[in-house]
């Protein structure tokens, strides 16, 4: 198809003289309100579009009438111009002209209105203005730069579609001040107003802004599913009562819904399909989408900070919602496809290290700038405290291979803003050599899936010995004790958004993803779960009791392990997805937290145990190690800082580690902590003995005698629903105690 003829700039039916656009400035990128050289207020527009031949900024009024204004100034591949009179709230987009030659990677198409990569707010959604969206229907064909329904499908992506996409795409919104109340506030995010929780003291809580608040009875209905809902006292009270120090929010960057989901009447719920790296997702705003979402997000962050809770964003800089060559043209593809994306030798295609169709070309300076500008913006102007990077190995690739000296990691390491915030890597991607657990450099922590798999295997009886469990309980030194890294490099988790919930982990051995509409083919089959003898929910009291015990075992193991624990919202109260282990498209009660569980007498004790364990962890530095264990005394007459015991009460030998068994005693000496306090004084704490027993049958365990302790107070017993109280008499050292089948006992050591 031929190119559409260029249109004159029209607004409200009247011609707008091209002279209205003044030269402006190439920096900063995006749309920024400012004052022109003659004192007239307006907006400066700046867009990097490397190989483009022309760029127009397009303004839209409330009736969606469009006026086009050419940006004639070009500085270092940045097209820019100043438009007087353009104020906050103005909606806009870009049309970018250039060659159409997909065989060489050139995919410019001025018929497609493009979202500004630097837009700070977005109004509208892709395809929502047409009745064609819904179950059994597709996204509008106008969203695609190519003719999607071309008869010869094998070359359809090479045939340009000249139909205008503007009526079917969201628009960027010019945003004014960036203070928490929507106005300028240069002091809004001073460091002394942030919680700044040290890594060893952190308790992470992964949650979905919408899913966490949609069913909460204490949140007003109009605020449910929004940033304002998460800032509501009813939501904050639960986080504070539980003892959480940081929320890790599933993606809140503006994202789009995939065509295959729309065809099935579903939506992308998790949000791992970003299209706007500066814009808070408009669908989570209660106050409006003409820039109000920015202030609402900032007020949410402020409320969480006031409650002592940090905000970490799950960010998706590895790919965008434009997918592969058959995907829509929404932003970067139409601005400079070859500049923004990794293309293989066959430049018509895309290098796909993400499994989502494309991969951002992070080694390109302008792409690296886009990412780092976005990160700094969320820290300095939106107030967040850190980031979890989805498929971080894809960002660490140089030309092809993962490289821990890559430009992305190098820039982060030296950036004065970013090197001070919390950085969490999902240390893998789907490409060759993409699994990099334990390989990220200092400054970074990592999601430790080795921890997840080991703990799941131990409690389902799939391990022959306790060697790997010992490493995971003590901080995974086999993975992280190098290059100055610390135990808190390991983010320990048993569940995450992706996979079974904790309750489903003990209820199902097989996924039940039929509602996703993919024939139950999606989601992993490697769940490492155990249904306790019956698949699915049951009224059998023996099975139910065992499942509750296993949940207590998982929570206790997680919160006693060295490293940074991460809980998933609702796991502490028995949330279920009914066996769906890939609820990415379940924006409904399947994916939302069911708050009625918190008042259910069957599940409330689990939440109480989680809060009890978190409080115990926060009260005792021996459970929050800042350095790896040495296995040696820290002073004359001291004990080893970490000791392991057999069921017979003797210290583990080399042969014991290799012997078949599923019982392990772990002694943490509070008198032998290697770190010092801020004044340089020794830190002294209580000592603890944790005994983990994964066998079904009870067995005796001899409590170690002097010098380890004179007696032991029982603090936690996962075989019980109600935990021990202070009135229980201590056990004398050297005595034999009975370990219930599949249980954890935690003792405080009483000096002799």
TrEMBL record:
Q: Name one GO molecular function term.
A: amylo-alpha-1,6-glucosidase activity
Protein's UniProt keywords contain Hydrolase = yes
Q: Where is the composition biased (Basic and acidic residues)?
A: 511-528
Cite the SUPFAM superfamilies for this sequence: (Trans)glycosidases, E set domains, Glycosyl hydrolase domain
UniProt lists the family membership as follows:
Belongs to the glycosyl hydrolase 13 family.
Q: Key word Hydrolase present in the record?
A: yes
Which protein are we looking at? Glycogen debranching enzyme GlgX
**Known InterPro entries for this protein?**
GH (IPR017853), GH13_cat_dom (IPR006047), GlgX_Isoamylase_N_E_set (IPR044505), Glyco_hydro_13_N (IPR004193), Glyco_hydro_b (IPR013780), Glycogen_debranch_GlgX (IPR011837), Ig-like_fold (IPR013783), Ig_E-set (IPR014756)
Glycosyl hydrolase family 13 catalytic domain: which residues?
206-617
One family from Pfam that matches here is CBM_48
Q: Report residue spans for region: Disordered.
A: 1-24, 158-193, 511-541
Q: Which UniProt keywords apply?
A: Glycosidase, Hydrolase
The organism is Streptomyces gilvosporeus
Please give the biological process terms from Gene Ontology that the record holds.
Answer: glycogen catabolic process
Tell me which CDD domains the record gives: AmyAc_Glg_debranch, E_set_GDE_Isoamylase_N
């Amino acid at each position: 198809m031929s190119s559409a003829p260029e249109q004159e700039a029209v607004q409200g039916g009247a011609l707008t003289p091209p002279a209205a656009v003044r030269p402006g400035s190439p920096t900063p990128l995006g749309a920024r309100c400012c004052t022109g050289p003659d004192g007239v207020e307006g907006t400066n527009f700046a867009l990097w579009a490397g190989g483009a031949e022309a760029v127009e900024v397009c303004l839209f009024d409330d009736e969606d009438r469009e006026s086009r204004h050419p940006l004639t100034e070009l500085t270092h591949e940045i097209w820019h111009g100043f438009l007087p009179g353009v104020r906050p709230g103005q909606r806009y987009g870009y049309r970018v002209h250039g060659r159409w030659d997909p065989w060489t990677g050139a995919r410019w198409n001025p018929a497609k209105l493009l979202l500004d990569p630097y837009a700070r707010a977005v109004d509208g959604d892709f395809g929502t203005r047409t009745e064609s969206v819904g179950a059994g229907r597709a996204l509008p064909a106008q969203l695609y730069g190519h003719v999607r329904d071309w008869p010869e499908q094998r070359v359809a992506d090479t045939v340009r579609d000249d139909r205008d996409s503007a009526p079917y795409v969201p628009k960027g919104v010019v945003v004014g001040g960036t203070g928490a109340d929507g106005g300028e506030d240069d002091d809004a995010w001073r460091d002394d107003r942030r919680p700044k929780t040290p890594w060893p003291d952190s308790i992470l809580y992964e949650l979905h802004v919408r899913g966490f608040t949609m069913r909460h009875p204490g949140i007003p209905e109009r605020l449910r599913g929004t940033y304002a809902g998460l800032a509501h006292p009813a939501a904050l009270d639960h986080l504070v009562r539980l003892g959480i120090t940081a929320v890790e929010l599933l993606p809140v960057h503006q994202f789009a819904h995939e065509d295959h989901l729309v065809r099935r009447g579903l939506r992308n719920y998790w949000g791992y399909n970003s299209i706007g790296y500066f814009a808070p997702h408009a669908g989570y705003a209660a106050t409006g989408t003409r820039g109000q979402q920015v202030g609402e997000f900032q007020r949410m962050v402020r409320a969480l900070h006031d409650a002592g809770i940090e905000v970490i964003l799950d960010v998706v800089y590895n790919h965008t919602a434009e997918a592969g060559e058959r995907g829509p043209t929404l932003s970067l593809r139409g601005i400079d496809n070859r500049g923004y994306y990794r293309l293989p030798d066959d430049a018509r295609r895309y290098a796909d290290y993400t499994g989502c169709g494309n991969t951002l070309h992070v080694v390109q300076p302008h792409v690296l700038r886009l990412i780092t500008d976005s990160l700094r913006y969320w820290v300095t102007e939106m107030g967040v405290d850190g980031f979890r990077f989805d498929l971080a190995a894809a960002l660490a690739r140089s030309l092809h291979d993962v490289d821990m000296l890559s430009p992305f990691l190098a820039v982060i390491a030296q950036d004065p803003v970013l090197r001070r915030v919390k950085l969490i890597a999902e240390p893998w991607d789907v490409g060759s050599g993409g699994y990099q657990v334990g390989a990220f450099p200092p400054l970074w922590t990592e999601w430790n899936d080795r921890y997840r798999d080991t703990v799941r295997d131990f409690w389902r009886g799939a391990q022959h010995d306790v060697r790997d469990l010992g490493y995971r309980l003590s901080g995974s030194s086999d993975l992280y004790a190098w290059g100055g890294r610390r135990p808190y490099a390991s983010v320990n988790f048993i569940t995450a958004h992706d996979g079974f919930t904790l309750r489903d982990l003990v209820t199902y051995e097989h996924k039940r993803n039929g509602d996703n509409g993919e024939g139950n083919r999606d989601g992993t089959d490697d769940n490492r779960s155990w249904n306790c003898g019956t698949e699915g929910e049951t009224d059998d009291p023996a099975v139910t009791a065992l499942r509750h015990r296993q949940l207590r075992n998982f929570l206790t193991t997680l919160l006693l392990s060295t490293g940074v624990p991460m809980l998933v919202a609702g796991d502490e109260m028995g949330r279920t997805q009914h066996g769906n282990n890939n609820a990415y498209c379940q924006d409904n009660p399947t994916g939302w937290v069911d708050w009625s569980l918190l008042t259910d007498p069957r599940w409330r004790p689990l939440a109480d145990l989680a809060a009890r364990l978190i409080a115990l962890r926060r009260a005792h530095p021996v459970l929050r190690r800042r350095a790896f264990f040495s296995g040696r005394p820290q002073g004359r007459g001291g004990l080893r800082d970490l000791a392991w015991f057999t069921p017979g009460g003797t210290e583990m030998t080399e042969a014991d580690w290799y012997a078949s068994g599923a019982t392990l005693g772990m002694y943490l000496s509070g008198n032998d902590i290697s770190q010092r306090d801020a004044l340089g004084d020794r830190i002294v704490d209580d000592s603890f003995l944790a005994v983990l027993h994964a066998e079904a049958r009870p067995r005796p365990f001899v409590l170690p005698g002097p010098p380890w302790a004179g007696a032991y107070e029982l603090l936690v017993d996962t075989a019980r629903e109600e935990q021990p109280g202070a009135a229980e008499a201590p056990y004398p050292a050297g005595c034999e105690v009975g370990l219930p089948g599949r249980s954890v006992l935690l003792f405080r050591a009483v000096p002799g």
